[in-house]
Amino acid sequence: MNTVAVMKRIIQQFLRDKRSIALLVIAPMLVLTLIWLVLDGDSYHPKIGVADIPEPIQQQLQKELEKDIVEITEGEAKEAFEDGELDAFITFQNLEPSILIEGSDHTANREVVKHVQAALQSVQGNSNKVEPNIEFYYGSENLNVFDQVGAVLIGFFVFFFVFIIGGISFLRERTQGTLEKLLSTPIKRWEIVTGYLLGFGLFTIIQALIIVSFAIYVLDIWMAGEFWQLLIVTFLLAITALTLATLLSAFANNEFQIMQFIPIVIIPQVFFSGIFNLETLAEWIQILSKFMPLTYGANAMQEIMIKGKGIGDVWLDLLVLFGFAVVFYILNIIALKKHRRL
Question: Which residues does UniProt call coiled coil (predicted)?
Fold first, then answer.
């Protein structure tokens, strides 16, 4: 009978928590839908430029790609690589095909080689098969999948753990009464928010430094740019995660409810931050990714780690990240109104 009584109490307690009931049903469906959207997208057709290649091969390649290919010079191709507008440049030297691959997107790299080899085999046949000479504009042939998605993974883990630690820590300040005591003093709301962010921010910065250092110097992930520039992006991403975590913690009553935000806030950002090529997905999904901070943080980190670019090249991503942090900061101040009205 005691067991039945405990069971009834748990059921009643769970039924009173409408958020948990909704999450139990909605979260799995949301995550499955995201996976379906990403994995059920169209095949990626790379953007290829050519110069001085035999007409039959060019026609077959265009047929393989199901899209037009553009005739450009090598200099124009490299400019297009810099602007992210081209995946590969193909030319022939002494009847031997040469492929210059942009190199920063593993999906595009794989599709370029697959389509070019299929076109060559269709025209030349197996007996006259000539293996193309492949070079990379960014990275190298030794760049594996982990190297290419590593920047996204670093950004995600920094964002994820800062979100969890920051949200739970700020929630404990509320549940233990510390925040209420501060609110009973003449201190202003913006001063409280700033103080908490600076205090928690110190530890999130240390955490970000450790994660980035471990990935680069221990796991030996590909790093073409400068370490200190990557740290700036990581720190800004961590501060953005912290401001978001403290904001959402204002609407949670316990640590379990903080965890409930993960399937809604954190997991969707993984799918739209660079691990999968968004060009194969519906346009509305590509637009949705623009509203996710990790999209900009991961892109900036990829530009630095794989392409070797600097802060000046990713300033727009950093500006957007800073904008997210400022908006979350302001909303944090507004959220404190429900605890004290000044």
Answer: none
